[in-house]
Amino acid sequence: MSAVGEWLDIGRVDQLPALGARTLPVRGGREIAIFRTANGEIYALANQCPHKQGPLSQGIVHDTTVTCPLHNWRISLVTGEALGEDKGCVPVIPVKIDGGRILIGRAAALEGVA
Amino acid sequence: MTKPHLIVIGNGMAGCRAIEEILARDADRYRITIFGAEPHVNYNRIMLSPLLAGDKSFDDIVINDLAWYADNAIDLVAGDPVVAIDRKIQTVTARSGRVESYEKLILATGSDPFIIPVPGHDLQGVVTFRDMDDVGAMLRAADAGGDAVVIGGGLLGLEAAHGLSLRGMKVTVLHIMPTLMERQLDEAAGWLLKEALEARGQTILTGADTAEIYGQGKVEGVRLKSGHEIPASLVVMAVGIRPNVKLARGADLAIGRGIHVDDHLVTSDANILAVGECVEHNGLVYGLVAPLWDMCRSLADGLVATPSGYTGSVTSTKLKVSGIDVFSAGDFSGGEGCEDIVMRDAARGIYKRVVVKDDRVIGAVLYGDTQDGNWYFDLLKKRQDVAEIRDALIFGQAFASGGAASANPNAAVAALADDAEICGCNGVSKGKVVGAIAGGACTLDAVRACTKASASCGSCTPLVEGLLAVTLGDAFDGERTAPTLCKCSSFTHEDVRRLIPEKGLKAIPQVMQALHWTTPDGCSSCRPALNYYLLCASPGEFVDDNQSRFVNERMHANIQKDGTYSVVPRMWGGVTNPKELRAIADVAEKYQARMVKVTGGQRLDIFGIKKEDLPAVWADLNAAGMVSGHAYAKALRTVKTCVGSEWCRFGTQDSTGLGIKTEQMTWGSFMPHKFKIAVSGCPRNCAEATIKDFGVICVDSGYELSIGGNGGIKLRGTDFLCKVATEQEALDHCAAFIQLYREEARYLDRTAPWVERVGLDYIKARIVEDVEGRVALTARFHFSQRFMQDDPWAKRAAGEDYKLHQHLAEIRPLATPSLVAA
Ligand code: SRM
Ligand SMILES: Cc1cc2nc3c(=O)[nH]c(=O)nc-3n(C[C@H](O)[C@H](O)[C@H](O)COP(=O)(O)OP(=O)(O)OC[C@H]3O[C@@H](n4cnc5c(N)ncnc54)[C@H](O)[C@@H]3O)c2cc1C
Ligand code: SF4
Ligand code: FES
After folding, report:
1. DSSP assignment, residue B587?
2. Dist CA B202 CA B224 (whole Å)
3. Are A8 and B819 a contacting pair at CB < 8 A?
4. What are the distances in angstroms from CA B15 to CA B79, B85, B278, B693?
5. Which residues, numbered 324 to 343 in chain B, qualify as contacts with chain A under a Cβ-Cβ cut-off of 8 Å?
6. For residue B687, is pLDDT > 90?
7. Is A11–B809 a contact, with Cβ atoms under 8 angstroms apart?
8. Cβ–Cβ gap A27/B177 under 8 Å
9. What percent of chain B has pLDDT over 90?
10. How many whole angstroms separate alpha carbon B397 and alpha carbon B369?
11. Which residues form the Rieske domain (chain A) (predicted)?
12. Which ligand is nearest to the CA of B129?
């Protein structure tokens, strides 16, 4: 068996709209949301709002925050923490960019996979 | 005794600087030979840009002329690159066959420009921008005339484009990212830069992905992935650089992205050093000159004096395009604990953003006025505590260190002289503002009304508020009579709506700049509002910004609590037929909808559709002649009707028919909030017309029109507007009322609170009494509808924005391959 790399290549940066997001389902695990900010940085969070599991990928991205589409909680893309008065946290998946390609941390991405 | 031989490979900026540093410490230690691939003396590479632009000649940019080599007994071997290093016997071999042995070797081979391997990249006329040869090729192409394409909207690309357009070429810049220089600038500054370059005649295409460079033997043009073709006789590739590690690799030195060096710039071989862009230190490679100076000092210290140790460099960037000032340093990506301080001065074309974290400056982006760039950069490098000067920081060094700054920002205002100018747009002095306040103007609006201060661009609003606070003391409650649009702006909705056409604003970043937004890209409140205001102000012209829309409007469906969507096709006037019902039934089965429900708006709602299936669902519904019901949109929702005179024994007019006509006239129109209409056939009012935004009650003698009703959270019955005699008049009044609401209400105001705020008399004056005005409103509504009435579902079903509906990829941990692209 070949050794499994630490990072998963999931596609090109330009496949994401600026200030937008796309989804990445994980068989047997939880769906991941990949976000792109105005500056072209990429972040990844579990696609589930800590409030009532709203799909964060469908929220409005501004600066390094996403506003949940269901009840407007604001979630930091950097830490996964709810901002302001709200309390809660969503798992963050490490991301790095290499030559225009998005790599996400394998271990975090596969967390919870049966 | 012979001196040990020091050989330098690379006669560029780092190589020669390293020698200068060594000579300054100990001029007699080594016998020195420098090999250079280029047939020139050492010149200043960064000045190739002004050379191309015609601001400098080659002689101007020479750093060390031949006399310098002679004076220091340096043997320069120019135009003869080294092709191999033999570490065992310590020799280098040049292309000419010349072999030299060394005691110490310095690699300073710089970088190679990266060439994207698209078809045609090797055609004649494709050049990079790195050395004198490249500049020569560009100048020859410019002399021959024609068009140029520059691929890459970073620092280098833009400098190349600038030079070529000064040389008379028509230049198009292709940039793959959405904003220019995205690694150095944020969206706001990148956008300003784009505007400025376009104003100078360059064509800038962002989000442009090159598919091919075409031509017979030589370049004839560039084709984008979108299919768009740009004819050109010259293509400059400026998409990035890669450390030149060829020799090091051949000699088996440790390399990563660059040649690995320690803090003394020594490679994995103790007798070989490396410096400049070709090295990797502590995981970092650099592409600017400032780090070279630091490296060369440490290299010389380590080699001939007391080792000091290189600890890495912090860099800043300036764009060398005359007349356009851009500065950037550090990290401005924001994030946890970061605070953005933003200042915009539209009149002078200035945008400044300083990012502060834990009372330290960590990044800065300046556009238009870069005077304080070095000061911010200095604060950043020294990690200086800025808590004391925090409030004055954004105004620059002169202001912040002039004693004006203190814990209380109002003290700075208080300290200003009476004749100090507060409002630059209207030339209003501090004395005049204070006088107005003393004379009874106790609110911002009052000051604006009587002095015009802060009434134009608004950038002095904080100053005026400061003066109010200082002059009135506790009597100033800081409240404004009308709320600001959101916390990113000091303007009210009304101000913004008025200023958009007044200043001819056409895009969201442009509004943010012109109206001094205090955040770089707004928030989830102001972005949708601005998007709507622009859409309303420039029908047919403004390109809707999808990312500034709430999910439902972006997806053209209603998101549900489980993340699936509901789909509501339009059912004109609440009337349907077997064909439509069959199509809905088929869709419900085919896509496993979990429920179909009759809505309170007289149509059918299909629940539980997955976002991936939406385009297919819409295609099926379109095929049966149905379009989006906009059940998700701040737009016309439903027109409820009753059966009316055609069937009902009490019916006075054809309420169903009028309802359908009304819906056909108004569907697709975006508004500040959702808008509902109903037409009842008689005063029994079965269509509940008196709790709608616009309601029609048919009577024997005509149509009673009423407005501003709301059945939602706060129940409000409509106000009677007027009675008209014909269907056409009813339709015309409806269009006029909607247009007035579209043009004047605040975003997210339903008609009910809006009518209450402006008063029924105002609405009557505009719609009933001012006949000419009504006709004009109706005409503007119809004009706007020309661009609004195309079914958004049809476009999506045909493939538009398909990415919104597809996963980026899918991870299947147990299958091979483990990643499946969508
Ligand atoms: C489906 C429907 C309920 C039903 O099953 O009958 C419905 C469902 C929703 N309504 Fe409604 N409203 C529906 C008719 C109404 C009506 C009755 C009507 O239109 O005659 C009203 C009261 C009339 C009025 O608007 O004045 C109504 C007053 C509201 C309100 C309160 C608005 C207000 O101004 O106070 C909201 C909240 C909002 O818009 O912010 C709301 C919001 C919603 C939302 C969009 C909640 C949301 O944001 O997710 C629901 C979306 C469901 C979905 O995914 O489709 N819905 N909603 C009705 C769709 C009608 C249609 O065919 O498009
Ligand atoms: C147009 C332009 C504008 C720039 N503007 C700026 C700016 O405004 N600010 C800024 O900080 N930086 C700027 N830079 C970047 C800056 O010029 C570089 O960071 C700097 O030149 C790097 O120095 P270096 O000595 O490592 O590489 P170079 O200066 O490229 O020197 C390397 C030399 O080694 C030679 N060489 C390579 N291989 C061999 C071999 N095998 N044998 C012999 N010789 C060899 C090359 O021919 C070259 O002459 C600019 C660059 C360009 C091209
Ligand atoms: S009444 Fe409340 S729960 Fe029912 S559809 Fe409307 S918003 Fe949803
Ligand atoms: S589920 Fe995200 S805010 Fe409620």
Report:
1. H
2. 18
3. yes
4. 15, 17, 11, 75
5. 332-336, 340
6. yes
7. yes
8. no
9. 61
10. 13
11. 7-104
12. 2
Cβ–Cβ < 8 Å for B6, B106 = yes
Cα distance between residue B726 and residue B701, in whole Å? 9
What is the DSSP pairing of strand A95-98 with strand B62-64? unpaired
**A81 pLDDT above the threshold of 80:** yes
Number of residues that make up chain A:
114
pLDDT digit string (tens) for B479-497? 555 678 888 887 889 889 9
Are B691 and B682 in contact by the 8 Å Cβ rule? The answer is: no
Backbone phi, then psi, for B743, in 5-degree steps?
Answer: -85, -25
Nearest CA owner, ligand 2 atom 49:
B12
| Cα–Cα nearest to B316, from B334, B328, B299 | B328
Residue B267, pLDDT score: 96
For residue B403, is pLDDT > 60?
no
- Mean pLDDT value of segment B556-579: 93
3-state helix, strand, coil in chain B (%, to 5): 35, 25, 40
Report residue B509: phi and psi, to 5°.
Answer: -60, -30
Give the tokens for residue B22: 């060594």
Q: d(Cα B146, Cα B138) in Å, to the nearest integer? A: 12
Using DSSP's 3-state secondary structure scheme, residue B190 falls into helix
Residues contacting ligand 4 via CB (< 6 Å): A 49, 51-54, 68, 70-73
Radius of gyration of chain A (CA): 14
Question: Within 13 A of B382's CA, how many CA atoms are on the CB side?
Answer: 9
pLDDT tens-digit readout, B271-301: 999 999 999 999 999 988 888 988 999 999 9
The beta-carbon neighbor of A9 closest among B340, B550, B819 is B819
Report the separation in Å between the CA atom of B712 and the middle of ligand 3, taken as the mean of its atom positions: 10
Instruction: Identify the residue whose tokens are 């303007």.
Output: B491
Q: What per-residue confidence (pLDDT) applies to B821?
A: 54
Contact A64 B335 (CB under 8 A): yes
3-state secondary structure string across B611-669: CCCHHHHHHHHHHCCCCECCCCCCEEEEEEECCHHHCCCCCCCCHHHHHHHHHHHHCCC
Token digits for A111? Answer: 């967390």
Rounded to an integer, the average pLDDT of A9-14 is: 90
Question: Where does the pLDDT of residue B136 fall: very low under 50, low under 70, confident under 90, or very high at 90 and above?
Answer: very high
What's the mean pLDDT when you consider all of chain B? Answer: 89
pLDDT digits (tens, 9 = 90+) for B366-402: 998 887 887 888 888 888 898 888 877 887 776 666 5
- Lowest-pLDDT choice from B440-444, B721-725, B793-797: B440-444
- Are the C-beta atoms of residues B155 and B249 closer than 8 Å to each other? no
Alpha carbon distance B634, B673 (integer Å) = 4
Stated length of chain B: 822
Is the beta carbon of B288 within 6 A of some atom in ligand 2?
yes
Nearest to A12 by CA among A4, A3, A1, A22: A22
Separation of first and last alpha carbons in chain A: 20
Q: Closest residue of B to A81, CA-based?
A: B336
Do B642 and B669 meet the contact criterion of CB atoms below 8 Å apart?
A: no
Beta strands in B683-749 (DSSP E): 694-699, 702-707, 719-724
Rounded CA separation B163/B694 (Å): 59
| pLDDT grade for B404, boundaries at 50, 70 and 90 | very low
**What is the predicted pLDDT for the residue at B445?**
78
Q: Is B113 in the pocket of ligand 2 (CB under 6 A)?
A: no
Distance of CA B113 to the CA centre of its chain: 27
Q: Which atom of ligand 1 is nearest to the CA of B752?
A: 34
Give B560: exposed, middle or buried? Use CB within 10 Å, 0-12, 13-18, 19+. middle
Tell whether omega for the bond before B817 is within 30 degrees of 0, i.e. cis: yes
Residue whose CA is closest, atom 20 of ligand 1?
A: B601
Q: Kindly report, residue by residue over B698-722, the tens digit of the pLDDT.
A: 999 999 999 999 998 889 999 999 9
